[in-house]
Amino acid sequence: MVKQESESANRPDNTAFTQQRLPAWQPILSAGIVIPGFVLIGLAFIGIGVALFVTSKSIQELEFDYTGYSNESPCSSCAQSVVANCKCSLNFTLTTLLQGPVFFYYGLSNYFQNYRRYGASKDDNQLYGDLSYFTSPSSSCSPYDYDSSKKPIVPCGSIANSMFNDTFTLTWTVNGKTNNVSLDGKGIAWWTDYNVKYRNPNVTPLKNAFNGTVKPINWAKPAYELDASDPSNNGFVNQDFLVWMRRAALPNFRKLYRRIDASGDYKNGLPAGNYTVDITYNYPVRAFNGVKKIVFSNVSWMGGRNEFLGIAYLVIGSLCVVMSVVMLIVYAKFKFPDEE
Amino acid sequence: PTKMSRRRVDTRSSLGPDDEVMPYSDDETDDELEEESSEGEEEAPERAPQPQVETRPTDVTWKVKANDRPYHQLPEFKKKVFLCIKKSKYSGNAIKTYKYNFLTFLPLNLYEQFKRVANIYFLVLLILQIIPEISTLPWYTTLIPLVIVLGITAIKDLVDDLARHRMDNEINNRKSEVLLNGRFQEAKWREIQVGDVVRLKKNDFIPADLLLLSSSNPNSLCYVETAELDGETNLKFRMGLRVTDERLQEDHQLADFNALIECEEPNNRLDKFTGMMLWDRERYPLELDNMLLRGCKIRNTDWCHGLVIFAGGDTKIMKNGGKTRFKRTKIDELMNYMVYTIFALLILVSAGLAIGHTYWYEAIGTKAWYLFDGKDRTNGYRGFLSFWGYIIVLNTMVPISLYVSVEVIRLGQSKFINWDLQMYFAEKDTPAKARTTTLNEELGQIQYVFSDKTGTLTQNIMQFKKCTIAGLIKPFSISCQPVDWSWNRYADKKFQFIDHSLVAHVRSKKDKDAMEFFKLLSLCHTVMVEHKADDLVYQAASPDEGALVTAARNFGYVFLSRTQDTMTIREMDQEMTYEMLALLDFNSDRKRMSIILKFPDGRIRLYCKGADTVIYERLSPSSKHKETTQTALDVFANETLRTLCLCYKDISAEEFEAWSRRHKEAQVTMNDREAALDAVYEQIENNLMLIGATAIEDKLQDGVPETIAKLAKADIKIWVLTGDKKETAENIGYSCSLLTDDMEIHYGDDVNEKLTRRQASRRDDPQAYRRGKKKTAEPFFPGSNKNALIITGGWLTDFVDMAFECEAVICCRVTPKQKAHVVSLVKKYKKAVTLSIGDGANDVNMIKTADIGVGISGQEGMQAVMSSDYAFAQFRYLQRLLLVHGRWSYIRMCKFLRFFFFKNFAFTLVHFWYSFFNGYSSQITFEDWFITLYNLAYSSLPVLLVGLLDQDVNDRLSLKFPKLYIPGQQGTLFNYKNFFISLFHGMFVSLIIFFIPYGAFLQTMGQDGEAPSDYQSFAVVAASSLIFIVNLQISLDTSYWTFVNCFAVLGSIAIYFGVMFDIHSAGIHVIFPSVFTFTGVASNALRQPYLWLTIILTVGISLLPVICIQFLSKTIWPSVGDKVRPLPVQQQACWSFSDLSA
């Protein structure tokens, strides 16, 4: 026995792995799988497409450009002036109820929040409330890290510095009566941004944390005074600030401004009637041919109105079905050639 | 050949390269390496690197003084080591094969690794990333993969080096007895020095290259086993000089020994040694026979004494080590070119985007006040910085883990070859062995196989079958009963012979010729004999010799023993001792050997045996039986038997005296001793009297015809290169189905005619020639569809074109050098992938020249195996190696590379599309951590497993349908076309990955009203789509799904989500707020059905067209594999081959 073993000492192991005979499944793209598969996928895609398209169609959306390029535009005067807090107002009429919940967005076009240097121009440690970064902001914030007198800017960087600062109020005129539509600015930013990513330093009052620092150059008020009405909505956890800091993927974007408070007359949304948006026009976009918009929209399970995805699904789904027919014909032709 | 022949005429004047030059057998050792390498440069510049053989030293500068250690420290023997530090040129005996020590490991290993262009590239990239102006990606995206890649290689090197350290230590601490201060003392090997006298015992390893002084055997004979040196297992004998044998037996004599040895400088030639011993004012020639080389083992000798000539690193075995042949596969080359292409593409794209940035900044950037960065730069300079920024962002187009992954795959495939039970030869307990791990996929692309005949196609187990004595063919009568050898107590029981009459004839002692015939066989050879118990064991250098001596033994002429100058045989019943005056040894040019003996009665006779051609040239005009023997030789050849002619010559004492003087002179020549000896031998080997000829049978190995037929069906052209004569070769060709009846055979003469005609027409139409010989030339053999060519040596250059038109080519009577020439010719003119297979030392050249060398470990030692890339025991395993392992390896590697390039394009080019929407600002689309881990963790394992395990059809079908091999030869699975398909596929997928989310994100908002169209959500959606696409695409490409593949695909996706949710978690942000900035994105984005629908659509659009195209192309243009695969087992068995050839 021992001798036998030594005689075949070099014999390789006979296992499924070493002999490359692992149990395996060898899938083949056979006609029986591919063609019905394409039909099924096509039908499923068409189904999804229809659902998306119908849903998207049902979403009501109102968009108004208030940049003021044309002279007819209500804000054309403000657009040309350089005065701060220039006021203008925009009127629109709703003939039917805008089903709630209604969201109020501002939109910017031709605005490159996704520019690399712009996106990197912030200090995450500072925004996390780390006081040591208050006095010495990251160099990535340059040139908005120190002001001309070498005082650190908090919050530093281009993103913070370029924060959108137009403000809007909405009034509803019905039967000659003008009502202020109450806007809810709570919880418009991501929960994780508000609770995790951005933090105020643990200093009360908050103002003291900012001792020795200056506000961003373009800001009218320092960070700790962003919201005079709500002391807890100040500093880095100010909702508008958080919304702005979450930079957009594409140069045309919308950001949530407020929700329409679903109470009283507005329980079901914005009722029919004439509305006025009073705009405090501050943010300059004409220099780079930017466009400013305000948008009222309600949402569905798929979010806002976007017909692209639904149409894309419909097109791809139909193509799948068409291709399955083509494949069937080709298959039949090559596998069972005509006797002729 | 003109060049070759001129040279040969110079060196060996009498042996012109004519048609009839024929080696004596296939078993010659090759002593032509040197000419080979010098000629190779002119003849075949493209051949594989030849082993570096140092030129034969003409100046004798190596001086060794016995028992005088200080002598070797004299200033004249110092050499400059470093600046002005000088060291003795004589190495100590300690060897050092390891590369690194504790301190040097890190710097040296890193240095070695950074010699690779790919690693340097990533190092440069890393440096670029550190420059803040252009750092578009954080440094860790490159550092982490680079460190892991370097780390894996470093660990491998470390393990290898540790093993070498252990080996070195073990060897250096072996013990030997060294003569010190007048007596033998035990010393470690590392302490031995040049000039020391060493005593070795039976079974000791030889510690250094020694000059044999004396041994316990008579005449200072010493047996050595050279297995470690050349792999040959038969014993060889070494002999001390007579003078040392007589005068250096006792310890005190050895202690007083003070000779000065002068010899050549250390070199790597195992088959040569020339030196001179100066002792007491006498000069004695030294040659290889006096040497005991390091690495050998002492056998059958109780003790022996040796003088250390070369120690440690100077020994021949160490000089031979470390020469690493570097063969590269076609795929390797292609892969490198593709990496360069990618690199060019990278620069081009980056430059384009940089220009884009310049114009964009001009048009928009300068006006966008929010982008103000406080830096006063021209737009051109911004573009320049952006160029480098994009080089960094798009660097992942050049796949960092490509080379490491390719190495891992090749290693795995080599292991599978080693593990294959169906290439394991149980009889000899020999598994197949992939000695080189870097060539596997080339096995799937072989177009030409060059095979040795003896020992490769045949078993190389020689059997004495027939003979012709005095013109009469024996046996006459054939009876079924084998001869009974009981009358001869020395007979080898395994020997079988079927002619009783010949035995009776010999026993009757009436036939002088027959007696002479067997006497010659028992005397003229170099066989060693061992007396084991009552039995005689012959140790023959070649199986032919063994067979002949064994035959003589059974016929009653028993070779009993040899000493330095006597031979003892038993002639029937009486023991005879002959004095051996000279042994004119065999070599591949002489193709004969002779022995000059002094008979007890004083007669001097020369016995000679050799190839018929060389013998016939040297026969005396008065020699009888020439014609009849020639007829017999032809008959033997037709029966595929190997023949040798035997003859003798009587020499007068005076004639011998005169010759002997010249012989002695030649023996002490220092310059080109070989040539001088050959010339002297020539002078005595003439006027020979023919006795007869022997015929030896060498059976075909199992499965050879089937294997050759299989390979031929796989469009692999098989050329047999053999030293045999034309008829033998042709018959072997038929019997192993290399030649078939429907072939038209063309011999060298026809070929000559056709070539002449071709050349004439070329002269008439020079225009046509210049336009390209291959295209304009009409076929040599119009009309015939299958051709075979049988050609003799000397014709080898011009016939290449013609040979390519043939199904089979047999080259007979070729020397080892010519074998290598044929291979390099085909490599040079055809640019084909070649494989050489052989078993003997004479095949080493050809094995090293071919793209792939296969060694058969058979009867002839291991020399072929040692220089081969793959080794196994039987020729028939070649079909499995090529058709199964080669094919799989090729397909796997191609699939792997195609996919690897694809996945990196699909990944990287997304940044390119995004550039158009972010002001060409080198903004990355994905999270930086995703970029870091994509190649390492998220996408590599499934494709690696495909590279290791995939099988499009199983091994049985691969063998059954050899046509499946053809795509590999044509290289259709991986070439520039495939590369660009991968590129466009990757581009398409990246386009989808960017633009579907783009469309979906445009001006929309999340289900809770918050804007989802932020950059980070976009990055997560695109990355998730990419991971699904890449892993599902490899699933589509996997044709052999094992649970491991399944695990890897699901695992990769799971790892992606696991890692992403971790990196996006609150906890990690709290710890590193500025490193992990994607907090909460995964959970926020992936809870929205809308984004999942976006991912599904992206994945769908990326994969569905691929499935559709694959299905259509399979239906319209099915490959052989597609036809074979879907058949159920039953049908596979009965589907005939012709169905597939259509």
TrEMBL record, chain A:
<keyword id="KW-1133">Transmembrane helix</keyword>
<dbReference type="GO" id="GO:0005783">
    <property type="term" value="C:endoplasmic reticulum"/>
</dbReference>
<dbReference type="GO" id="GO:0045332">
    <property type="term" value="P:phospholipid translocation"/>
</dbReference>
<comment type="similarity">
    <text>Belongs to the CDC50/LEM3 family.</text>
</comment>
<feature type="transmembrane region" description="Helical">
    <location>
        <begin position="28"/>
        <end position="54"/>
    </location>
</feature>
<dbReference type="InterPro" id="IPR005045">
    <property type="entry name" value="CDC50/LEM3_fam"/>
</dbReference>
<keyword id="KW-0472">Membrane</keyword>
<keyword id="KW-0812">Transmembrane</keyword>
<dbReference type="GO" id="GO:0005886">
    <property type="term" value="C:plasma membrane"/>
</dbReference>
<dbReference type="GO" id="GO:0005794">
    <property type="term" value="C:Golgi apparatus"/>
</dbReference>
<dbReference type="Pfam" id="PF03381">
    <property type="entry name" value="CDC50"/>
</dbReference>
<protein>
    <recommendedName>
        <fullName>Cell cycle control protein</fullName>
    </recommendedName>
</protein>
<feature type="transmembrane region" description="Helical">
    <location>
        <begin position="311"/>
        <end position="332"/>
    </location>
</feature>
From TrEMBL, chain B:
<feature type="binding site">
    <location>
        <position position="813"/>
    </location>
    <ligand>
        <name>ATP</name>
    </ligand>
</feature>
<dbReference type="GO" id="GO:0090554">
    <property type="term" value="F:phosphatidylcholine floppase activity"/>
</dbReference>
<feature type="binding site">
    <location>
        <position position="819"/>
    </location>
    <ligand>
        <name>ATP</name>
    </ligand>
</feature>
<keyword id="KW-1278">Translocase</keyword>
<feature type="transmembrane region" description="Helical">
    <location>
        <begin position="381"/>
        <end position="406"/>
    </location>
</feature>
<feature type="domain" description="P-type ATPase A">
    <location>
        <begin position="172"/>
        <end position="233"/>
    </location>
</feature>
<dbReference type="InterPro" id="IPR044492">
    <property type="entry name" value="P_typ_ATPase_HD_dom"/>
</dbReference>
<keyword id="KW-0966">Cell projection</keyword>
<dbReference type="InterPro" id="IPR018303">
    <property type="entry name" value="ATPase_P-typ_P_site"/>
</dbReference>
<dbReference type="InterPro" id="IPR036412">
    <property type="entry name" value="HAD-like_sf"/>
</dbReference>
<keyword id="KW-0256">Endoplasmic reticulum</keyword>
<dbReference type="InterPro" id="IPR023299">
    <property type="entry name" value="ATPase_P-typ_cyto_dom_N"/>
</dbReference>
<feature type="binding site">
    <location>
        <position position="839"/>
    </location>
    <ligand>
        <name>Mg(2+)</name>
    </ligand>
</feature>
<feature type="compositionally biased region" description="Acidic residues">
    <location>
        <begin position="17"/>
        <end position="44"/>
    </location>
</feature>
<keyword id="KW-0067">ATP-binding</keyword>
<feature type="region of interest" description="Disordered">
    <location>
        <begin position="1"/>
        <end position="57"/>
    </location>
</feature>
<feature type="transmembrane region" description="Helical">
    <location>
        <begin position="929"/>
        <end position="949"/>
    </location>
</feature>
<dbReference type="GO" id="GO:0005524">
    <property type="term" value="F:ATP binding"/>
</dbReference>
<dbReference type="GO" id="GO:0090556">
    <property type="term" value="F:phosphatidylserine floppase activity"/>
</dbReference>
<dbReference type="GO" id="GO:0016324">
    <property type="term" value="C:apical plasma membrane"/>
</dbReference>
<dbReference type="InterPro" id="IPR059000">
    <property type="entry name" value="ATPase_P-type_domA"/>
</dbReference>
<dbReference type="InterPro" id="IPR023298">
    <property type="entry name" value="ATPase_P-typ_TM_dom_sf"/>
</dbReference>
